[in-house]
Amino acid sequence: RNFHYITILRDPVSRYLSEWRHVQRGATWKASLHVCDGRPPTSEELPSCYTGDDWSGCPLKEFMDCPYNLANNRQVRMLSDLTLVGCYNLSVMPEKQRNKVLLESAKSNLKHMAFFGLTEFQRKTQYLFEKTFNMNFISPFTQYNTTRASSVEINEEIQKRIEGLNFLDMELYSYAKDLFLQRYQFMRQKDHQDARRKRQEQRKFLKGRFLQTHFQSQGQVQSQNPSQNQSQEQSDSNTSNGTNDYIGSVEKWR
Q1: pLDDT for the residue 97
Q2: I need a surface site. Which of 73, 100, 125, 184 has the fewest CB within 10 A?
Q3: Is 111 in a helix, a strand, or coil?
Q4: What is the C-alpha separation between 254 and 247, in angstroms, rounded?
Q5: Would you state the pLDDT for residue 244?
Q6: Would you say 103 and 172 are in contact if contact means Cβ atoms under 8 Å apart?
Q7: Rounded distance, CA 186 to CA 33, Å?
Q8: What was the pLDDT predicted at 105?
Q9: Low-confidence residues of the chain: pLDDT under 70
Q10: Collapsing DSSP states into helix, strand and coil, what is residue 228?
């Protein structure tokens, strides 16, 4: 079988706030083993941000203050090859180098996926998916501008801090948005070119049918009225006949 990898990216700040609200309601990732290079991380490599069964009721400040929070730069981490940086072992290489490797890996994997979309562009995402896989959805995608994340009111300082905590995701999303819109424009231009070519082929076909019918009708008239045709040929010997005039006009109109 041929498997195609696809993903949907989201604006990093909105995604981060959405995850916080999800965690605040009691969601956990305890079932996720975070297996990398054949083993899960140790408790020293990936400490927990909370004690107890879950992190329900967690304030946003506490959520942001945990340095081990996997919500930070989640999209880059989940799209990159963690084995390139020693998985969750932060002592393998300097942080700056680790971040660079993770970001480049995420960009490369995203670029080579069969398809990816953006939550903020639902209809364009649907269009690209349908064109990529030659499939059509039964109903159009709906763009919801009101979400749990959008209901959270934050000031500019909190906004900047979330962007700083997700600086890799911010850069990835900027890259993804640019690539996504390039693909969309390319596909739209291809659609217009295909439609124009089909119209040209249809006009050519109809023109051929018309000329064929016209010549057939002319032939029938000549066979029925030979004497009239002879006199017409003599009178028009110094001018172009009607068929040539018509063809010339078609050339002008085309």
Answers
A1: 98
A2: 100
A3: helix
A4: 11
A5: 47
A6: yes
A7: 40
A8: 98
A9: 146, 148, 220-254
A10: helix
DSSP conformational letter for 113: S
3-class secondary-structure state, position 39: strand
Residue partners of 122: CB distance under 8 A and separation at least 6: 141, 142, 143, 144
- The pair of three-digit structure tokens given for residue 23, joined into one six-digit string: 């965690």
Q: Find how far residue 6's CA is from the centre of its chain.
A: 10
- Alpha-carbon gap, residue 107 to 68, rounded angstroms: 23
Amino acid at 120: E
Query: How far is it, in rounded angstroms, from Cα 157 to Cα 165?
Result: 12
User: Token pair for residue 125?
Assistant: 């995402």
Predicted model pTM: 0.78
Phi, psi of 36 (to 5 degrees): -140, 130
Q: Which two tokens stand for residue 151?
A: 């209901």
Euclidean distance between CA atoms 182 and 185, whole angstroms? 5
From residue 107, how far is each of 6, 96, 151, 173, 185 by CA, in Å?
Answer: 13, 17, 30, 9, 20
| Confidence (pLDDT) at 76 | 98
pLDDT of residue 103: 98
DSSP string for 114-168: SEEEETT-HHHHHHHHHHHHT---SS--------TTTT----HHHHHHHHHHTHH
What is the pLDDT, as a whole number, of residue 43?
93
Residue at 178: amino acid letter: D
DSSP string, 165-198: HTHHHHHHHHHHHHHHHHHHHHHHHHHHHHHHHH
